[in-house]
Amino acid sequence: MRSARAHLGFWIKGAQALALAVAVCFSLGATDAGSRFTNLNHRLMCTCGCAEILGECNHVGCQSSGQELAELRGGIDAGKSDQEILASFAAKYGATVLAAPTAHGFDLVAWIAPFAVFAAALLGTILLIRRWGNLSGNNKEAATRTSDPATDALREKIRRETGDDGGI
Amino acid sequence: MAAFGSLALLIALALAAYNLFAGAVALRLLATGQPAPIQPERLADTARRAGIAGFVAVTAAAFALIWSVFANDFSITYIMEHSNRALPAAYKFSALWSGQEGSLLLWAWLLATYGFVLRLTHKNDVKLYAYAGTIMAGIQVFFLAVLNFAAPPFALYQGVIPGDGNGLNPLLQYPEMVIHPPMLYLGYVGFSVPFAFALGALMMRYPGEKWIKITRVWTMVTWLFLTMGIFLGMHWAYAVLGWGGYWGWDPVENASVMPWLTGTAFLHSVMMQEKKGMMKSWNVWLIFSTFLLTLLGTLLTRAGLVSSVHAFAQSSIGSWFVTFMVIVLAVCIFTYVLQRSHLKGEHHVESLVSRESSFLFNNLVLLMACFVILWGTLFPILSEYVQGNKVTVGAPWYNRVAVPIGIFLLFLTGVGPLLPWRATSFRSIRRNFVLPVIVFWAAVIACFAVGVAPWKDGAFDTGNFYALVAISTAAAVLTAILSEFVRGAGVISRQSGRNLLVGTWLLVRRNTRRYGGYIVHIGVVVIVVGLAGSAFNRNVESEMALHDKISVGPYTLECVGFTQDSNLNYNSEYALLDVYKNGKKSFQMTPEKRVYLASEQPQTMVAIHSVPAWDLYVVYEGTNPDTGQPIIKAFLNPLVGWIWFGVALIVFGTLVALVPSLKPAQKGAHQ
Prior knowledge:
The structure holds two protein chains of two kinds. By secondary structure, chain A is an all-alpha fold. Chain A has six helices and no strands.
């Protein structure tokens, strides 16, 4: 039991470290002008009605993408920040020119809702499994069940040799 | 022919209505045992026969439309708007689904065809099939009512009949467009069948799980069609739209994935019901949701609720679909509430680390992915309602939100099959997982070695990071799945004295469903690797005069000429590009731009040279109006071919899973 808890603690710490590393990585941003240009033109939409990302619009005779790309290049050359450039595009062309909702006001809901629902659903699933297994009550040991390795191996052997386990 | 087609549709509607009404009355009489002037069994059989006759009538209507296209009957508005005399024969078939009315007719015809097969095989279980057939008749009544009253395909052109039609949308004049929409529709419409069985089984309180076994093949075949439809659409977008990608998170693309995700969840969770008697309510609602999502997909395509590149299909029949969806949902809820006691399962999970739990998490992640896509698709409407202005929810949002979920799903694809039913030990986990974990870290190191690192130019790069995680996880998952094959084949090999290859063959034959499923998982892994390659796409764009050169990756493209061509359907301009690799001339590419005469619309035709490592993808973008020089854009898209290969593996795996396993006696005979 103690060994099981130690294992669990190890995995939790590992997951925390990984999450921290990911968060640190995500907090960094693009720096040089070339990658900024590419990054920004993939955060904007072409306004001609083609419903394509600005940096990827190449349809024949597009009247909008060239002008927008020139404006973007001008903004970068003028030393504006990413936020200033995006705000100026939104002011000129409307909010639909931004390829993703902003992180302000009601738009923030677009970002939060999926993760909130996922967290709730994950919690619900874990609680459901515990309930179905009666894990929270007097059968707590089964939560980190360490079935007899010999039985486990036998079950595995039978399963493989009979191939009789239904689907996947 | 217009009168014949209209009459056929009207007769089909009458037959479907009779099928629904007579079927419902007969089943009610059977359920209550009330005396009636006609035997309920006979009444039910007349309903079934009406369904078969309905198939003939809808087929006649579809035939009439196709005939009219080939006969260039421009007195029919639909033909005038979607075809022209010079349209090649293969694309004349495409006219059937190129517009609103035709694609609804295609839907009705496919539904009638599925119903025809279902009604012919009714002896498998007469009563259950009678329920399913009646429910399908209800769905058919809706589509035929729309075809007869809201979107008639045989409406006559008002005014002087033109000598030629407007032609087919240029986007649709591509070989895959002859098969992509029918495949997608086979998938969409096909989910009506498991829906009808699920609802019918619930209505009649069908004992046991036999209905699941009956619908399993239907569901898998339907899922396969939908899978192929989605990927054919991706390939079409890649080869025709000319932006170098294959998936743009367009609302209509999203609409096709949502039922695929819930259908995939159903295919997994249904095993829990078969083996453990668990998740009965869940499975019923999964299949209800899948069917409703197919309708939502059609609604999004047709009603123009959200802006889409598929806007050519928009019309005003959205309200019909909304009404129908509300009715279907109400029937589902009513039936469920009435019969929910029949769905009490035997819920028992011994451990968080077990096959049962992995199925639950698999369902959780698949439904989360569905929710994320639905949320992203509908958020612009919600935003407009709440704050008065629409916003765009495009690729950057999906890449941040949906991709991590996809990687988690990939992880479960590898972990799930390694966990035994009921419970497992840490020792067993260590034994099964040590190799995949080693491979994961080896893949991380290998990725770093070849330059796949989560940063670029000194800054963190989300795309590279996802690619690194996806490729490493894919390697680990592939190892996990292959080790399952090797372990199983090793046991058989030792038992039978055959070599490992024969052992693998026997292993698969003994449990086609399980190992077919594994092959499907391998296909998914291969696809993920292909998708991860998009993080390293490169492109170069340039005006090219004669003998100008541009380079992308290991290739140098030299312009050796420009030419023009024309036929009755379109005029075209080509660039002739010699492609050099390592200084040697390797091949020639001819990207093209067409202008279709009937519609006067331009269209790019991309030139693609595909090898396992990458695609060289060249677009003729047009000419610079100032200089008159052609503009060429060349992309180097790594690993794209893996996506299509992965799809082939999925198709193969699904076909394997559909083959019945060897029975024990046959096993003995084989050995």
